[in-house]
């Protein structure tokens, strides 16, 4: 704790990671390197996101990119870039991604970590120039190093995460992450190519007045959700819904609020994926003093049964999550 207070705002992400690594007597530096690999991939996606509008213009003229490849959708590009960065880094033995049906064995049996990720979340916002994000969770493998990756490696509870974070490609690009000792946010300066600590030791207010939910499905929500929305309106709370989970979550984290993607008639388990979206944000939220549940159970305690499993998601200020999930 003392360290965090002493950390000057403005140090680079690299130096911050190094400083934190020194807090662990027996740290090998692999997790630190993995976080740096993710930051590097984030810089690459930042560049692609910022060129996205131009890509579609050049696409309209039938041009191909420098490698002579066909123009690809940005979420596919992000997936490729992340996988490449993690593969080259060498710390990871397997990746699971929202973009891929199966486990990706990266041919690095000595890697000690597993990464679960949503390389570009909020894809419906890409074409309309609205904020999007990357979400990641890092787990230590449970199978023996050197052998094949197992189902147990990739289906671990969120409480087993050793680190988690997100990149937000907004008016600025930010990386926010936790290693289980608080949450810190870094803002990218593209002119220097560096992330700088801008939000040290983020704490989410216990209460807030922002609620984020797609009210278009109101009629098909469960009674307690309808009741809570009515309550929010009575309280004159502010409704904010970008439809981009990272951006909605980030705003609520800083200002106090709740994000809900509940079950509805069409999607009985909601829409969001436990492994790629909910676990990481739940870990960050709890580390910042907030709460995350599926309406009944703590997100981090859910034992995943399949890679692409969906769960209802209530995340944000503790008092708001409690109120939204009360019968
Ligand atoms: P995606 O992974 O296909 O991008 O879907 C996830 C996104 C979230 O970012 C966002 O909060 C939610 O889907 C919006 O869904 P809806 O349009 O149903 O409200
Ligand atoms: Mg997603």
Automatic annotation (TrEMBL):
Pfam families for the chain: FBPase, FBPase_C
Binding site for Mg(2+) 2: 118, 121, 277
Gene Ontology BP, a term: fructose 1,6-bisphosphate metabolic process
GO-annotated cellular components: cytosol
Comment on bound cofactor: Binds 2 magnesium ions per subunit.
Signal peptide: none
Principal location listed in the UniProt entry: cytoplasm
Pathway the protein acts in: Carbohydrate biosynthesis
InterPro entries listed in its UniProt record: FBPase_C_dom (IPR044015), FBPase_class-1 (IPR000146), FBPase_N (IPR033391), FBPtase (IPR028343)
Domain Fructose-1-6-bisphosphatase class I N-terminal, chain residue ranges per copy: 11-199
Localization annotation: Cytoplasm
Family statement drawn from the similarity comment of this UniProt entry: Belongs to the FBPase class 1 family.
Protein name according to UniProt: Fructose-1,6-bisphosphatase class 1
Annotated source species: Marivirga aurantiaca
Higher taxonomy: Bacteria, Pseudomonadati, Bacteroidota, Cytophagia, Cytophagales
């Amino acid at each position: 704790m003392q360290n965090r207070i002493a950390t000057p705002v403005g140090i680079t992400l690299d130096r911050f990671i190094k400083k934190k690594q020194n807090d662990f007597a027996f740290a090998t530096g692999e997790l630190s390197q993995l976080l740096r690999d993710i930051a590097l991939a984030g810089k690459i996606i930042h560049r692609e996101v910022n060129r996205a509008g131009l890509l579609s213009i050049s696409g309209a003229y039938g041009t191909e990119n420098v490698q002579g490849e066909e123009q690809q959708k940005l979420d596919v590009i992000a997936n490729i870039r992340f996988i490449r960065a993690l593969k080259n880094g060498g710390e990871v033995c397997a990746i699971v991604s929202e973009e891929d049906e199966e486990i990706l064995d990266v041919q690095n049996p000595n890697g000690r970590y597993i990464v679960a990720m949503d390389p570009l979340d909020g894809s419906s916002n890409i074409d309309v120039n609205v904020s999007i994000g990357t979400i990641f969770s890092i787990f230590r493998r449970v199978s023996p190093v050197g052998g094949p990756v197992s189902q147990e490696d990739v289906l671990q509870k969120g409480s087993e995460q050793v680190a988690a974070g997100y990149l937000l490609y907004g008016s600025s690009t930010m990386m926010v992450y936790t290693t289980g000792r608080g949450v810190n946010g870094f803002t990218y300066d593209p002119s220097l190519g560096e992330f700088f600590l801008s939000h040290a030791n983020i704490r989410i207010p216990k209460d807030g007045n922002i609620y984020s939910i797609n009210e278009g499905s109101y009629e098909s929500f469960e009674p307690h959700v309808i009741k809570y929305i009515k309550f929010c309106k009575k309280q004159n709370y502010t409704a904010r819904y970008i439809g981009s989970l990272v951006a909605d979550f980030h705003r609520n984290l800083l200002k106090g609020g709740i994000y809900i993607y509940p079950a509805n008639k069409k999607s009985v388990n909601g829409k969001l994926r436990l492994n790629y979206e909910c676990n990481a944000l739940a870990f960050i939220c709890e580390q910042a003093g907030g709460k995350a549940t599926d309406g009944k159970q703590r997100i981090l305690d859910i034992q995943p049964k399949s890679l692409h499993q969906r769960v209802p998601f209530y995340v944000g200020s503790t008092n708001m999550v409690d109120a939204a999930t009360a019968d």
